[in-house]
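Probable transporter MCH1
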Amino acid sequence: MTGAALSRGGGGGDDDDASSVHSSPASSFRSDSPSPSHRRRRHALLITTRNVSFLAAVLAALCGGSITAFSLYGHLFQERLHYSQYQVNGVSSIASFSLYLPVPLFGYICDRYGPARLSGAAAILFGAGYGLAAGIYKYGTQSAAARPGRGSYTLMMVAFVLIGVGTCALYICSIATCAKNFGKGKYRGLALAAPITAIGLSGLWESQVGSRLLYERLPDGSRGDVDCFLFFIFLAVLLFFVSAIGFFTMKVIDEQELIDEAVEELERSGLLDGSAFSSSSVRPQSSYGTLQQIDPEPTQEDTETSRLLDATKHSDDNHDGDEAATFKKNQVLNAETRRFLADNTTWLFAAGFFLAIGPAEAFINNMGTVLKTLYPPTELQLAPHVSAATHVSVICATSTAARLIVGALTDILAPSPATQHFQFPSPGAPQTMLQRMRFSVSRVTFIIFFALLLSLGMAVLASGAVQNHGERFWIVSSSIGAGYGALFSLAPIIVTIIWGVENFGTNWGIIATFPAVGNALWGAVYSAVYQAGAAKSADRAGAGDSESDLFCYGSQCYSAAYWGMAGSVWFACALILWAWRGKGGWTARGIVI
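Predicted structure tokens:
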């Protein structure tokens, strides 16, 4: 009898709270069967806990994407603190690195210790990060005339490292909570899209609060730029309390049952490589579900796996309660991580994500300076369509709509596998009756479509079609916003569909690290093109002061960079298509996607 069969009545949850919410498989096995009233009460408690966790995760995500409002105040670092474009890009890039690089570590922690601890850490990081940024900005504006661009820069970098790490922690715990609690449902794509959508929506409403409520008053009494000091204080307080709420409410329900079902399926698969528990009589080839008979003499890997299987099946004899559950959980998750890393399509998909998301984030972080290149400085104040706050809102709104739409459409139109765990079908395995009978559109088709939409916005900008025509910039911001939001919604859904939900935090963490490098790469390219254009503009104008070298006007400030970004997205589409339809890809392996 498998572990899953023993735990049907026991369920599982967050490691920290498992004993308080439900009994472990071992204790369930030893105790008498619960009465119907006890089962009803326990079921109601689990449903309530799951719904509260979902609401806490969505609330956290609804506030946690504050870093996407960087364009609202990024140009003020250049104007008020006298940072160069390289320095402004450095702040945004270090925040991006801090957002993405810890994702595998935080995903690992979330999978093994639960999301609540990450939410608690995010509260401290956000409070310290935005509090420090507020203080440094206030000091920097007062001392910038004496020490332009130098006095505050290092500490501002430190502040945005803390902000980026806090955003990473809150992001991972939010989406992992929803992915694991709703992995069995028919609409798991929509459930996962909810916090991802909320992340995008957070930048929309926070930028509106900053621009419409926390703004500077001009001498004539009209509304000016956002007051960075007040805005940073607002975000510090808000995110501290929202993350603290998540610390007490985010839980994963029935996690032990999820692990036991994964063990059952892995045993049934007969695979040893990475995520398998089977006898030593078979060894897998590199593709899913293909077995190869080997010499009866076991290898070292076979022996080790057999010991793991034996230890897992008989862990109740050697461990008590939660220790046995934790032992089994760690073995399954570690094995699935090795299987995930050994899959060549993992790296094709990760490379495609890197090449597509990096340019999009570089555009979002630098959009404020791009808008200021569209008109000569003397005409900029009169231009009605170059407000950074407006286009931040456009990006957030279209990103939010795209995330919800693709979450719902893929649940309805895309084929669904019969399992929520790691897929191990054989090539040519028959599809389910539902898949055979109804029209379906692969999730990969959706991701390619929205990647091309993303590249369209970059190509329009690169062509110079919006130069001196700020009223056309909505084409750029809306298409990039929609493509960016859809890709960030579809990518984690694809990870759960192909590689399962029990190790989602670790798997998605590995994939999500790549955009940080892409953002830094294309941000540096844009900065180089911008600074070269500023130098040419200054030479033509005969300006000799260093202040004029900071600013650029004209398509030469961005065109070459955005043609390169569009090409990067097109190459990303080719890599993802190869992972799907190429030799040894998902279609050839019988993966339902």
